[in-house]
Every structure is written in structure tokens, then in C-alpha cells.
């Protein structure tokens, strides 16, 4: 369906756009051999709210032609997500027009960089991101340690100093690979620069986990959220950890055990832990018999200053 872009109105999303968005996002990846469904139909109403985010729809009158959102994660970092273009309007510049408006909104509020995340198997999404000016930044994968309250004898001994954790992080290979990024403590599935204040806040809330050794801190992680998720088998409680970083395989095992114990203490039935997508980190997970996600995820970034 080809029509003039002059017929498209780009405006902030509203509650009334829900049906129009659902109409073209419910089957976003139904034609691919992946076990992933689009989250937008499930979270739309709460997803569009908040002062630190802007959601733009392309309104074609009788249909919603596209949607995307940017969220401010810090004073200078934006996170773009939910970019979807109605199949009836692909190839007509809808994605670029929405993206340009989101970049302008973020720039006007002080952002100098906007990042996004694309599943590694999503060739169309990767191509679109590169066409919109995003450059490759890093890649990560999820580990899924099984919650186990008996995994460590003294969980409190793993609740270390945020200053020591920061010192370890600044000199770690994980920081180099991840370009200083880890999961945002508030926005789900968003990465931002890890800062001393994030670690300090995690420590204050007993969410920081570290592994010590003769030469100081050897590993770190921090809990970002515990949430109940609906699955085909009912409700399942997830504990999510914004980072898994370690110096060697032995430290990896101790940290993963601490995460397993911490998750169990919080009543979680499953976990996910962000780790760098490297042969070392992924194989360390395998060496400790921890479930590993099938695919990595890619993070890209665009300068908007």
C-alpha cells in the first residue's frame, strides 16, 4: 500500500491507539523460528506513560503505521525501544520519520547518545538500526542460574562494598567488552553506563553481590528487579541481575552460586543474568552447568548531540 507521507501524522501515542497498535504487533515475529512474542500488546498502557519517555505513533487515519519510544535513562543517555512499522507501510520512511522525532526529543532534554537493543537473529531490525544511524556497541547474553537456597553457606558474606566493586569493574575485561554498560535498575531490558551510585544504591538495598579474594574483589553482580511473569504454565517469579562480571572461572562459580542463593531467598523460580558475549564468559557458564540463552543480543548506539 503506497501513499504519500503527507497523509501521515506523527504524534504522541495515546491510550486510544491501543487497538491500532495491537492490530499489527501481535504477530510481529510469528513467521520466524524463534520462541519470542511481541511484548507491546501486553504492556502498552503502562509502557507509554511517564515524564521521562516519549512514544510516537505514525497515524495514517485508518491505521497506525508505526510506533517507537525513547526513554531517558540518565541526564545524557537515551534508550530507544519498541520500533515497529506496520507491514502495510514498510519501505515508506515511517521508521526514519519516527526515529528523527525521538532523537530530537531526547536531544532537547540533554541526551548526547541514544542506544537500542536488537535480538541477534532479527536481521530486519539490525538493518533498520544501521540505516537509522546506530553503530554497533556491544553484545551480551543471558545466563539462567537455578535458584537454590543451599548454594552458599553464608549469603551475607557476598554482600560486599560498592567502592570495592567499582574498583574491580573499572579494571575488568567485562567493562571493556560491554563498553561500560549494564542493565538499568529501573527500565526493563535497557542498558546504561554503570556508575558508582548504581552500585551504592544496590548495596544500600542488599542487592549488590561480590566475590572477594586475596587480591580484592573478583566478581560482582547486582539485582535489578524481581517480578511475577505470566507464562503458559501460570505465574513465575523472575529475579533479574544487571551484570555478571568475574575474574576467572572459580570466581564465576562462586558468584553464580551467590546469585542462585539470593534468587531463592527472594522467592524467585527463575533468573536471568546479563554477561558479556565472549567465549570466556559463555563457556564459564557452561563449565558450571548453568543454563545459557540460545542467542546473544546486540546493543547499538547513535550520537544525537
UniProtKB/TrEMBL annotation:
Official protein name in the record: GNAT family N-acetyltransferase
Domain N-acetyltransferase: 8-159
GO molecular function: acyltransferase activity, transferring groups other than amino-acyl groups
Matching InterPro entries: Acyl_CoA_acyltransferase (IPR016181), Bact_Acetyltransf (IPR050832), GNAT_dom (IPR000182)
Pfam families: Acetyltransf_1
Native organism: Halovenus carboxidivorans
Keywords, alphabetical: Acyltransferase, Transferase
Lineage: superkingdom: Archaea
Amino acid at each position: 500500500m503506497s501513499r504519500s507521507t503527507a497523509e501521515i501524522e506523527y504524534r504522541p501515542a495515546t491510550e486510544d491507539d491501543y487497538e491500532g497498535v495491537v492490530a499489527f504487533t501481535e504477530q510481529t515475529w510469528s513467521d520466524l523460528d524463534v520462541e519470542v512474542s511481541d511484548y507491546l500488546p501486553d504492556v502498552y498502557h503502562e509502557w507509554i506513560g511517564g515524564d521521562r519517555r516519549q512514544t510516537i505513533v505514525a497515524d495514517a487515519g485508518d491505521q497506525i503505521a508505526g510506533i517507537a519510544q525513547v526513554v531517558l535513562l540518565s541526564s545524557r543517555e537515551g534508550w530507544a525501544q519498541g520500533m515497529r512499522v506496520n507491514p502495510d507501510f514498510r519501505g515508506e520512511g515511517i521508521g526514519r520519520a519516527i526515529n528523527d522525532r525521538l532523537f530530537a526529543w531526547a536531544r532537547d532534554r540533554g541526551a548526547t547518545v541514544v542506544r537500542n537493543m536488537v535480538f541477534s537473529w532479527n536481521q530486519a531490525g539490525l538493518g533498520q538500526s544501521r540505516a537509522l544511524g546506530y553503530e554497533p556497541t556491544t553484545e551480551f547474553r543471558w545466563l539462567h542460574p537455578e535458584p537454590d537456597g543451599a548454594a552458599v553457606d553464608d549469603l551475607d558474606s557476598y554482600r560486599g562494598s560498592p567502592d570495592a566493586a567499582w574498583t574491580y569493574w573499572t579494571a575488568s575485561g567485562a567493562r571493556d567488552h560491554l563498553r561500560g554498560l549494564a542493565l538499568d535498575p529501573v527500565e526493563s531490558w535497557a542498558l546504561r553506563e554503570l556508575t558508582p551510585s548504581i552500585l551504592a544504591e544496590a548495596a544500600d538495598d542488599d542487592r549488590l553481590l561480590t566475590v572477594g579474594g586475596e587480591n580484592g574483589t573478583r566478581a560482582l553482580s547486582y539485582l535489578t528487579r524481581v517480578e511475577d511473569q505470566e507464562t503458559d504454565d501460570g505465574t513465575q517469579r523472575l529475579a533479574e541481575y544487571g551484570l555478571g562480571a568475574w575474574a576467572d572461572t572459580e570466581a564465576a562459580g562462586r558468584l553464580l552460586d551467590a546469585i542462585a542463593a539470593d534468587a531463592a531467598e527472594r522467592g524467585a523460580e527463575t533468573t536471568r543474568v546479563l554477561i558479556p558475549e565472549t567465549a570466556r564468559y559463555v563457556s564459564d557458564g557452561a563449565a558450571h552447568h548453568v543454563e545459557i540463552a540460545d542467542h546473544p543480543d546486540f546493543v547499538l548506539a547513535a550520537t544525537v548531540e
